[in-house]
Backbone:
């Protein structure tokens, strides 16, 4: 019997003989079908607003993504491209593998992204390193037109705004294909070695959330592109250890205080004429943070971020004369955040901009002369991001935590600033909303909302501009046909609450209690921590992926606790800025406030509090063990940073500054400064080919612990990157973590 037949047999048996409530297992969390249901990914509304495209995994393999579409008029749902049939044996280049690590999509295969053509009839996809154009009006195999056939893979493909070209990067140069003739044209010619054209460098992808390296003018006339030379970046010789070999990788890795790439900005026409450079200013040690075109295609905007990240300039350039001027500058004594909120208006010479200058992130309307025209949002709450602008209606759509720090809701504000303090909420249902609006529509008629809450798996639905639901794309009801149905009755719903930090600011926490919770018993605690800047660990949403491990631990008899310490995302600057200059200090103090509160509860065994974290969470685990082994009984750290002098420039210098300017802050932020205090049991795990948090972080820790005579448990993963991306690795590491806690601070299963 084939694997697919076995899967269908299991489904039929489950329908005939419904299972009793079951405990969730780690094997099932990483297995198929996906426990969240077959929910859409990469949802994009077609330019004409008639269809919705999305990617969806398979019932027998949730990580194999195919291209689907939903027709809004008739409700037809159809798989357009079967990725497995089109490319049965997908081979990824090293560049593409690295790119997927940066984008946190290394778990997936098949079609990972696509692009709507402006005619709303064609979709561009990449598969197996080649490009295909899919025609919605053609049936069968003829619907796919293969655009590239080369042995060299392509990355970052796009359809031009007018639909005349397809652009992509190959061998570190920018190329276009003229769709009418099929002519392929190379636009840059010096890519190779340390020089990259139309790509985004490592730290821009990883730390500035900028995966793109080129940008089309709205009329197809020009392409702006980034060119970077990494020859000045020090080489980190990394030994990637696989099961059967060791590879010496020479990675250009800019550690804190070291040289970044040399970056330039150019413009080139798709006809292949000579590229021209744009002056980025006298200071070459900068980040080219964002690039955008104005609607008239005559002006280009770029955002220039200083090396210190304390000044962000918005610069406008006339691409004909190259005359330029700084329109706006954001400054901060700590750091300036880079966002994607800049929107240039078509109906007036103005733009929407976000800033935290008042202490919270809010939206403003500026003229192209740099003068502020309107305050669009205001109050003791934060705008998350601009979702869309409807100029004829005079509205800006955005997401925010205005109603609750643990929720994400959708709002509208008027472009004249009339309802700045009281924006109109259009989303329905408490929880977490992630909207997708059409990107090229003149008027906003509809949007797609991906919604969940702690009891509701992710749903995808189409809504009118006022928020009313028009149709379901995937209702994803948690009924007897849902993969999570047999675990529903044992599913724990988090209880949310707040505590106060030592400066009086609110700390939000959640508690999961075991099924059949008995307030007269004393339970061990499993503290799941991240704690790092730019991330919110506590959300009123359905658990994502391996976050379901919290449910496993609760069902195994543990109290599961999460707390967002100061420095976490989506809060006022007074909250996020508290970590500046020294990491691992206020974050640890805040987590210990949560631990001490737990230890005062009559249903907690104060001697059995354990902590787990990954990446920055792994660092937090080590710092908690080293600073508070009298409160923490055991800790599991996966891929931890141990010394921020080993981590990259953009992230580390944002919070600690340059090492030469803050040597004490770097020393105090390192795990080694307090390692003598680590007395409680430690489980340490790390991928042996991690190119993000280098394996050196853990080997240094191993050596220091051994020098001190401290015993610890260790698990290393040959060939694994930062995320231990295969289901087998994820299962193995979480089962090892569960065994570790069961051994060091066991719980009695109720």
Residues:
């Amino acid at each position: 019997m084939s694997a697919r037949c076995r899967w269908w047999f299991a489904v039929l048996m489950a329908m005939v003989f419904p299972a009793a409530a079951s405990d969730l297992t780690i094997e099932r969390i990483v297995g198929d079908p996906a426990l969240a249901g077959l929910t859409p990914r990469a949802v994009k509304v077609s330019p004409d607003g008639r269809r919705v495209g999305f990617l969806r995994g398979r019932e027998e393999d949730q990580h194999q993504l195919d291209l689907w579409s939903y027709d809004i008029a008739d409700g037809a749902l159809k798989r357009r491209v079967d990725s497995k049939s089109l490319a049965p044996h997908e081979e990824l280049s090293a560049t593409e593998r690295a790119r997927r690590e940066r984008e946190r999509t290394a778990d997936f295969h098949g079609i990972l992204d696509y692009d709507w053509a402006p005619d709303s009839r064609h979709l561009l996809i990449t598969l197996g390193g080649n490009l295909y154009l899919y025609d919605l009006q053609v049936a069968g195999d003829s619907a796919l037109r293969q655009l590239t056939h080369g042995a060299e893979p392509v990355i970052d493909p796009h359809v031009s705004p007018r639909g005349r070209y397809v652009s992509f990067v190959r061998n570190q140069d920018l190329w276009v294909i003229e769709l009418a003739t099929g002519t392929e044209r190379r636009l840059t010619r010096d890519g190779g070695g340390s020089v990259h054209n139309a790509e985004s460098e490592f730290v821009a992808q990883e730390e500035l959330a900028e995966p793109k390296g080129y940008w089309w003018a709205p009329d197809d006339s020009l392409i702006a592109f980034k060119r970077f030379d990494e020859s000045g970046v020090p080489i980190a010789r990394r030994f990637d250890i696989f099961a059967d070999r060791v590879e010496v990788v020479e990675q250009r890795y800019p550690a804190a205080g070291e040289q970044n790439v040399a970056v330039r900005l150019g413009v080139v026409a798709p006809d292949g004429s000579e590229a021209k450079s744009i002056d980025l200013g006298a200071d070459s040690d900068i980040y080219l943070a964002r690039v955008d075109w104005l609607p008239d295609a005559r002006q280009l905007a770029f955002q220039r971020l200083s090396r210190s990240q304390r000044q962000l300039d918005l610069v406008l350039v006339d691409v004909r004369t190259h005359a330029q001027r700084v329109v706006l500058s954001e400054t901060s004594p700590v750091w300036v955040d880079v966002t994607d909120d800049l929107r240039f208006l078509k109906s007036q010479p103005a733009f929407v901009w976000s800033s935290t200058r008042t202490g919270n992130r809010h939206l403003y309307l500026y003229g192209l002369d740099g003068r502020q025209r309107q305050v669009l949002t205001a109050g003791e709450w934060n705008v998350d991001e601009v979702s869309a602008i409807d100029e004829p209606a005079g509205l800006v759509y955005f997401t925010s935590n205005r109603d609750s720090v643990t929720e994400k809701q959708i709002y509208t504000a008027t472009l004249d600033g009339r309802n700045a303090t009281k924006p109109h909420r259009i989303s329905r249902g408490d929880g977490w909303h992630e909207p997708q609006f059409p990107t090229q529509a003149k008027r906003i008629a509809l949007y797609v909302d991906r919604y969940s809450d702690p009891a509701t798996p992710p749903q995808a639905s189409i809504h009118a501009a006022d928020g009313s639901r028009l149709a379901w794309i995937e209702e994803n009801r948690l009924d007897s046909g849902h993969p999570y149905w047999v675990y529903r009755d044992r599913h724990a719903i988090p209880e949310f609450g707040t505590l106060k930090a030592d400066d009086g600011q609110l700390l939000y926490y959640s508690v999961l209690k075991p099924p059949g919770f008995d307030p007269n018993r004393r339970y061990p605690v499993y503290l799941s921590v991240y704690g790092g800047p730019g991330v919110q660990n506590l959300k009123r949403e359905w658990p994502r992926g391996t976050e379901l491990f919290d449910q496993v631990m609760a069902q195994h008899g543990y109290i599961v606790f999460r707390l967002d310490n100061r420095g976490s995302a989506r809060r006022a600057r007074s909250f996020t800025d508290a970590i500046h200059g020294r990491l691992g200090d206020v974050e640890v103090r805040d987590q210990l406030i949560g631990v001490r509160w737990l230890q005062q509860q009559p249903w907690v065994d104060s001697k059995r509090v354990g902590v787990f974290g990954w990446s920055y969470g792994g660092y937090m685990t080590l710092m908690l063990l080293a600073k508070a082994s009298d409160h923490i009984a055991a800790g599991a750290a996966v891929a931890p940073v141990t010394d921020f002098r080993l981590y990259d420039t953009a992230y580390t210098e944002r919070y600690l500054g340059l090492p030469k300017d803050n040597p004490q802050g770097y020393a105090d932020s390192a795990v080694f400064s307090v390692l003598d205090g680590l007395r409680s049991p430690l489980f340490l795990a790390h991928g042996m080919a991690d190119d993000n948090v280098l394996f050196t972080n853990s080997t240094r820790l191993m050596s220091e612990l051994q020098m001190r005579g401290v015993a610890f448990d260790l698990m290393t993963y040959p060939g694994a990157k930062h995320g231990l991306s295969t289901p087998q690795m994820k299962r193995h590491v979480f089962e090892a973590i569960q065994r570790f806690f069961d051994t060091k601070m066991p719980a009695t299963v109720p």
